[in-house]
Amino acid sequence: MDPTISVSKGCFVYKNGATRANKKEPSKRKRSGPAATSSLLGKEITTQPFYAAYSDCWKQLHEHIQQLQMTSNARTLEQLVEFVGIEGHCRLDEVLPTAALLTGINQPDHLKQFETLTQRLHLQRVGRVSVLQSRDCATLKAAIESMVYSLMYDLSAMPEMDEEEADEGERDRKRLRRTQCTLKQLHAWYSNNFGGAGKQRALVIVLPDFECFNANVLQDFILILSAQCERLPFVLILGVATAMTTVHSTLPYHVSSKIKLRVFQTQAAPTGLNEVLDKVLLSPKYAFHLSGKAFKFLTHIFLYYDFSIQGFIQGFKYCLMEHYFAGNAFALCTGYSQALGRIKQLSHEDMETIRRLPSFRPYVEQINDCKRIIAVLTDDEYLKKKLPQLLRDCLLHFMLFRCSLEFFTELVGDLPRCPLGKLHRELYVNCLNKPISQQAEYKECWQILSFMSKEAFVAKLSKCISCTEHFLSEQIAPLELGDACAEVMRAELQTLKTLLNDVELATLEQQPHVNSESHLSSDARALTDLTQVASRQELKAQLLQRSKQDKQQSTSEYARALTKILAHIEEQLVLKHLRPLQQAPPLHELYVFTDIATVRRNIIGAPRAALHTALNNPHFYMQCKCCELQDQTQLVGTMPDLSVVYKLHLECGRMINLFDWLQAFRSVLRSADEQENAEVSQEHIDPQIQARFTRAVAELQFLGYIKMSKRKTDHATRLTW
Amino acid sequence: MEQICGAVEPLFPCREASIRTLCELIGHCNEAYPPAIYIFGHSGTGKTSLTKAILQQCERQQKVRTVQLNAIECYTTKILLENVLDALAPEEQQPAESLVADNMLEFVEQLRRWHGKSARGFLIAVDNAERLRDMDANVLPVLLRLQQLTGLNICVLLLSQLPFEKYYNKTGLSEIIPVHLAQYNKTETLRILSSDFDQLKRQLQLQLDGDRLAICEQSLTPEFYSNYLNLFLSVFYKACRDVPELRLTARKCFAVYMEPVLDGSVECTDVSRLWRHIAGPLRSALTQIYLRVEKPLGEPDIEDQSVRRLAQSLELPYYGKFLLIAAFLASHNSAKQDKRLFVKHHGKQRKRMQTVNARAKNAEKMSTTLGPKSFSIDRLLAIFYAILDEKVGLTCNLLSQISTLVHLKLLAFVSGEQNIMDGSAKLQCTVGLEFVLYIGKVVGFNVRQYLCDFM
């Protein structure tokens, strides 16, 4: 610390440009960032093979997701950029061109979308952009100032300036103070930089969270912009989270008549998610898979809580990290050839990890040679030799699973009422969780399928087949092991085709039984029988029998072919490939993430529950010996005071008498060391205990559990239940 | 003065009297101006454009310095003063010289210093003058007495929609000359709108070609157009008297009106058939007036105002929907009834004659029609858990949904926004019954069943 000549104590400001240096530094660091290590983790972790596998996998996935989102948003963005390009000129009437972008309810997610829009506008040199968030615009003054400031000193626009523009930029280098940022300044700046003909650029104002703006500020802001429209080519972009009616209800007529509104629709969040799931997470390209439960958990958060795709991706990333960080053995969770290379690097511990996997045991049990069992369990080298085959089986299984899922989705996805769900993700979860053929919904599907008309069924099945073939050639074929998978699958499809051909050729006519004569005679006999029934019961029995006979006879050739093909599908595709996780080949744990409990604990914050555990059972977090509890409700004097007070207050009703509370507190403490304090009188309270009690109550109040009552003296009100 | 009148009058039909009054007041720059003029009238009566035209003419013909301001832009007094100074600076003044006026005194001094000796006229027009009332207390009085304070031949024109009585305050204001621009009546509106005819015709002729151009030439007569305007005004005049707005809509609808004539399917004299064609579009245009929603070409009509569509198109997470329903129930049931509504074994309700009578009397005072009451977050969560079948943990994700709903303006804070932590914050639900009924239908929950009003 620098010495001062002052005798008084205090903080002193030194004018040595320290703040300026600080401001410059981060930007430099940011630029050199990617070159240096961007990870928080030390070298000892980043050099491990599992980390390499993890970062590899995440990089691929991340790029894929980003590319996907780019393309799905591309159309709207193109339209918006085009709109800005067309409207971004000065006009004579005071009408402000405005684009309303219906984004969807998760506002933080959409900030990113506006970022890409900004980048695009800069890239195409259409305009300068200022993104105004509602928190910066509490008053009109603040709104205008931050708008002008960000338009004039738009950092993201700086790098793309040419030389000629750069020296113009130099002219404004002398930065303005916030309060000097007025429209007059903006006007001067604009005519300085873009005044010339052909250099005109639109000034784009983006309000990403329209709903959060103060209505009065917004109205005045729009009126000002529209009044300036003659001289400055403003374009307004509103990010509307709910619907257009909010725009109409926020802006009164005299404001809304000043804008020219054009509505743009973006992709709805659930469709966006489905796209990500179908194209990335369920892609056969990646070796990493989520188990049915983990998958359901993540989609559940999305659909039930927040509709945030970003949140979903982060959750998925967390699962990925959790999976790979379990050990170097999980470095094998990559493509086949890479995994082969990594097998050599595995140490003894890693092999032990593999042996401890739950699915390893069935594998060992099915070997019937004693010597080989011992070799597998003890000899690392022997197991390493065996590994490639096992991994290959696993990878192949997942590919076949994915192909069959494609077929199966097409088959049952559009049945009436969708008993099993109509999307890949629903079916994926269903198939992985439980043996699907035993579920009631599955049986319902099969029934519906068997009731379908011939044309519909044939059309459906041929569509399924062509879909799967398309999937094979598009997605599977380019992968390694893809040929092996495709070969198996094509063979299946071929048999299906021949069966389908049978179905197609089958006639719908009632096929009389082979021995029509006997059939006829029996028929005649039945007829005669009917005439001579004696009692009602007899008649009923006979009728029942006849109807049964009818059913058997009425099976047409088509129906028989149909049952045959359905049975084939069930046997060859569903039972063979769409197996649940429990029946997956050995070592599937290397590829599938199942540890849902950890993720749940770490992703979902439950502040109230955590606080309750901490106060109710401090041992859980402190791991101390003194306050181990046998029973959750137990009260021990050695626990922290706050915890004791909390537990006592749980026993009370809405109002808590402070004196009674104190007495209870004291008795709890005394029970801890009763030998010494046994003789202390009831009335006299040790001031130390009183002080401890007061402090604990104050802390409890600080935590928000109680409030001192104003109605009743010496009572506290409970705030939680 | 005559020249100014002559230049402005053709631009503003039906405003001859007002123009003449104004010109008499400020038309002679060599005579003393009145200190201040107050021009008022409803929106769309031509206050701003009329003033603008007159000031332009004055500047051009008599070399008067003029300023036009919009009071909304001047969110601080300083900006107002600097804008005036900026426009009134002497021509020989270097632009770089600082124009700092922190307060009224400096402003008046600066004006005196610059123009003390010249005998020129100065006109200052302030649009949306009602905003001046909310600015510093001295702004309005100084502007009204600027002539006296500076000793210059200066006149301030204030433009507003309010009558001047609304400006009076305790200290009083000096005299001002009011000029009222009355709203146009129907015939005047018709006259103004039909002055568009020539421009419209030229525009149409540019767009069309071949057969259609010939038909257009033949049928597009002033009578035809005024017929159309009569039809148009018969629908719109009740709803809107704002002339610019009417003009815009009239142009938009005229294309639709002309369409069958250009196609050759309807004779241009067959008014009743033309009316049948245009009635529908006119009515739909009436709902869109002032909204200025522009539809991109070739896209389906996404503008459907019905609540049903709105509720179905609003995508909320599953629990978000339930929270919204819970908020609605909390807002429209009294807390006393909660036990009866949401607890299974709530005991039997005793019926007293008193309550029965009270209820019968207040049948029309249903709480769903009285508007939402406030509720605490605890109560919201309690009802949420009561109406949800499954067990959900009280997690951050769930709690953040509440703030999301507040952001979307589906819920609103009534009080205690600052102290959410101590549980005293009160919320209310801002959506209507119909909306919630549809939301409930989407998630399969019967809202009506849980409303006291429908028991």
TrEMBL record, chain A:
InterPro entries: ORC3, ORC3_ins, ORC3_N, ORC_WH_C
Cellular component terms per the entry's GO annotation: DNA replication preinitiation complex; nuclear origin of replication recognition complex; nuclear pore; nuclear pre-replicative complex
Source organism superkingdom: Eukaryota
GO molecular function: DNA replication origin binding; ribonucleoprotein complex binding
Cell membrane in keyword set: no
Cell location: Nucleus
Domain (Origin recognition complex subunit 3 insertion): residue spans on this chain: 343-595
Keywords per UniProt: DNA replication, DNA-binding, Nucleus, Phosphoprotein
Biological process terms in GO annotation: DNA replication initiation; positive regulation of border follicle cell migration
Domain Origin recognition complex subunit 3 winged helix C-terminal: 608-721
Origin recognition complex subunit 3 N-terminal domain boundaries: 3-332
Repeat is among the record's keywords: no
Assembly and oligomerization: Component of ORC, a complex composed of at least 6 subunits: ORC1, ORC2, ORC3, ORC4, ORC5 and ORC6. ORC is regulated in a cell-cycle dependent manner. It is sequentially assembled at the exit from anaphase of mitosis and disassembled as cells enter S phase.
Main function: Component of the origin recognition complex (ORC) that binds origins of replication. DNA-binding is ATP-dependent. The specific DNA sequences that define origins of replication have not been identified yet. ORC is required to assemble the pre-replication complex necessary to initiate DNA replication. Binds histone H3 and H4 trimethylation marks H3K9me3, H3K27me3 and H4K20me3.
Family as reported in the entry's similarity comment: Belongs to the ORC3 family.
Protein's name in the database: Origin recognition complex subunit 3
Originating organism: Drosophila grimshawi
Lineage, uppermost ranks: Eukaryota, Metazoa, Ecdysozoa, Arthropoda, Hexapoda
Automatic annotation (TrEMBL), chain B:
Database matches in InterPro entries: AAA_16, ORC5, ORC5_C, ORC5_lid, P-loop_NTPase
Keyword Ubl conjugation: no
GO biological process annotation, one example: DNA replication initiation
Gene3D superfamilies according to UniProt: P-loop containing nucleotide triphosphate hydrolases
Subcellular location: Nucleus
GO cellular component: nuclear origin of replication recognition complex
Residues of the Origin recognition complex subunit 5 C-terminal domain: 316-451
Residues of the Orc1-like AAA ATPase domain: 12-156
Pfam families: AAA_16, ORC5_C, ORC5_lid
Record flagged with keyword Amino-acid biosynthesis: no
ORC5 lid domain sequence ranges: 225-287
Keywords: ATP-binding, DNA replication, Nucleotide-binding, Nucleus
GO molecular function annotations of the record: ATP binding; DNA replication origin binding; ribonucleoprotein complex binding
Membership in a protein family: Belongs to the ORC5 family.
PANTHER family named in the record: ORIGIN RECOGNITION COMPLEX SUBUNIT 5
Protein name: Origin recognition complex subunit 5
